Protein: Adenosylmethionine-8-amino-7-oxononanoate aminotransferase
Organism: Chryseobacterium taeanense
Amino acid sequence: MNLSKRDKAVNWHPYTQMKTANDIIPIVRGKGIYLFDDEGKQYIDAVSSWWVTLHGHAHPYIAKRVSDQLHTLEQVIFAGFTHEPAVQLSENLLSLLPENQKKIFYSDNGSTAVEVALKMCIQYAYNQKHKKTKILAFKNAYHGDTFGAMSVSGRSVWTQPFGEMLFEVVFIDVPTAENLDRLTTFIESISHETACFIYEPLIQGAAGMLMHKAEDLSELMKVCRKQKILMIQDEVFTGFGRTGKLFAADHLSEKPDIMCFSKGLTGGTMPMGITSCSLEIFDEFLSDDRYKTLFHGHSFTANPLACTAALASMELLLQPETLENIDLIVKKHSVFSEILRRHSKVENVRQTGTILAWEIISSGKTSYFNDIVKMLYKEFLNRGIILRPLGNVMYLVPPYCITSEELDFIYHQIIEVLDHFYH
Ligand SMILES: *Cc1c(COP(=O)(O)O)cnc(C)c1O
């Protein structure tokens, strides 16, 4: 039996209707921006394997570092013990974050990083004996798939079966120059009972790469600061260079209280989540009273292999060649976005740094439209490019090691498919 058939017999895939899923592709190895299937066909990973891969697949430097670590210390309980990779990673990461970020809490993925952040905020108020139970989030937000993370995410087909079990959240519009006054008045009216505001800065990824302006978000953050509402900046997607700067925070004039990281944190090599916070938050948990402890942890907290992968990935990220190539991607996307804007089958072209998104126009009915999206996905696969649409939104989130020629190849294929492949 081939891998696809064996897979079908035993595996249940994420976000996949297993009844209709047929083309599950077995990948046998990866190298740089390429993935290779069991028949030797190669694919450009233009979505960085769900936005995690920074420096390409099976990067030899990360592999070497993780392999060395694997022979030294693979795992140790992180309550009562520590190790060099965790200390070094916290030191290195904190040196790159806004200067108010002073402590690092480790977990396993983006969703858990969000859970930890929410618990920090809720218990911060609890430890102060304040009754603050409201949480603010953006409409269409996505913060993960565990229950807390789902609760602060926009309500959608993804959350529908669990609707009644999700805690209540106040959803607000993303800020614009026009609605800022209205948002400010509203936030002022509920601030006394609001514990925190959680948001994806600059770009709402899973909602379909919806973008808002850094100036407007900074203004909104000013309001929260003034109203003493804690800010959780979810940089699970935007962190580590995606927005053209190291962090979305580098575009903003205000500093969050808490930040969440995952996805690109280890260069896409190992699962890991990080929640960083300010001393103001941390100090509120310092007490002789045991009940003020943050009672949260995971078996694999600060796993040494994941920490090492993150250390190696951050070293690669800060190399001049990587930063120059990020700039190159940003510039080339910007030129290509002008071409897309003039295309009759495309609308709402938008870009934040290395992330380029556009929407497909079709005159047909919704069902026909869904078929088009499926067909586009397949057609790009045939052409050796992984471009996985989110509804009618297509996007590019390439690994930073992509070359100018490889980008041109992708752009060319996109235009060809749009021109000729459907009406
Ligand atoms: C992907 C994502 C998450 C969830 O991360 P997982 O590792 O998939 O749990 C949270 N927040 C944002 C902004 C994300 O893009």
User: Anything to note?
Assistant: The first strand starts at residue 27 and ends at 31.
